[in-house]
Each structure stands twice: as C-alpha cells, then as structure tokens.
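Re: [help] complex structure
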Amino acid sequence: GAGVSQSPSNKVTEKGKDVELRCDPISGHTALYWYRQSLGQGLEFLIYFQGNSAPDKSGLPSDRFSAERTGGSVSTLTIQRTQQEDSAVYLCASSPWGGITDTQYFGPGTRLTVL
Amino acid sequence: GNSVTQMEGPVTLSEEAFLTINCTYTATGYPSLFWYVQYPGEGLQLLLKATKADDKGSNKGFEATYRKETTSFHLEKGSVQVSDSAVYFCALSEEEAAGNKLTFGGGTRVLVKP
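Output below.
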C-alpha cells in the first residue's frame, strides 16, 4: 500500500516568506507526527496529532510554526516569516494508534532552504 | 527529560566485519526502543524494535537487546555488507501526557567498504 507522502520534496524560499509543507499519512493511521532533521540539531520532534484530541505542540520552536490536521488525515505545517535557521528537512510520520509500541512510518521529507 | 546517546561516527568497516553501535538512554518510565536506518537518498525506516526489558529485536541480520539494568540497546550485526552503509538512529518512545513522540540519538554513519 501507499506510504506516507510529503510535498513538495524541495522548497527554496527567501527569508521572511511564509511556507506550507504538506503530509499525507498512511490511510487509517490515527497518529501523525512532524519532526525536523538538521545538521546542528539532529532529529527533533515538532508536533503530534492523535485522532480528534488537541495536538501536542510542545516541540514547536517558535510561534512562527503552526500545524493543522484536517479531517483526521492530511496535515499542513506552516512556517511564517521564515528564517535561515529554519533550513532543514521536515519529516512527517504516521502510526496506527499512537501507542508507545507503535512503529512510526516516515515520509521522504521536504528539504527547506531559506536564503 | 528523555534522552538517547549513541556513539558518534563515522564508523568505517570492511565487508564481513562485525558491527556494534552503542546506544544508551535515559527515561523516567518504561520506554519502547527502536533502531531506525536511513540509507543514502532514502527516508527513515524502522530496522527493529523492542518494547520491554530483555526483548530482542532482529531484522536483516541486525539484533539489539533491551537491557533495562544498563539502560542500553546496542545494535549488532555479525557480518556487514556494502549495502549496510547508512546512518543508524537509536530512538525511544515513552508515553507522556499528550503523546508518545520519538526521542532520537544523534545518528551514527556507517560506511562498509568492499
């Protein structure tokens, strides 16, 4: 079956612009996660959605970052007024139930470059 | 908070050599432990996992045993191949108030030479 998909695969933007990154999780998975992979910080958790519950936003680095999940499926991560330190690969993952033993399945990522 | 520490790379080996990547963790409860692998040009994928103490995860000739007494989850493979060249990430998942995010180690790059 289809895995997690993300778009765009690459995004180059100018400092100060807003960007939107999209994630399509595996069908039927109730949990969705966003992570960021950068050279300096490694792999960092950003935000977690589980069903209709309020999202866990504890990893968002600033109020310029926000995310939505519509209809329990597709998610969009929005970064406003991008800064050069936002340059990274943004990874989306989904898992069946969000339990601690669940395997998280990762998408290919969106490489964001802020000039 | 939770944390994962793994040996820094790069690790360079010859084909058929024995590979060990050390991983230790800090957690307040009873986490599940994972090894994820990122092959060149590909996304993160699960290699193996263990969900309770003394469990052994295994896949593709790799093994790791969940050792609660030493808070470790070392990855081993007896005979590596060139195709095992990748970056390996140790991670844990522990249920918290509002989620069970993965906490990753810094990654270990492994290069296997023919």
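The beta strands of chain A are 5-7, 10-13, 19-24, 31-38, 42-50, 65-69, 75-79, 88-95, 105-106, 110-114.
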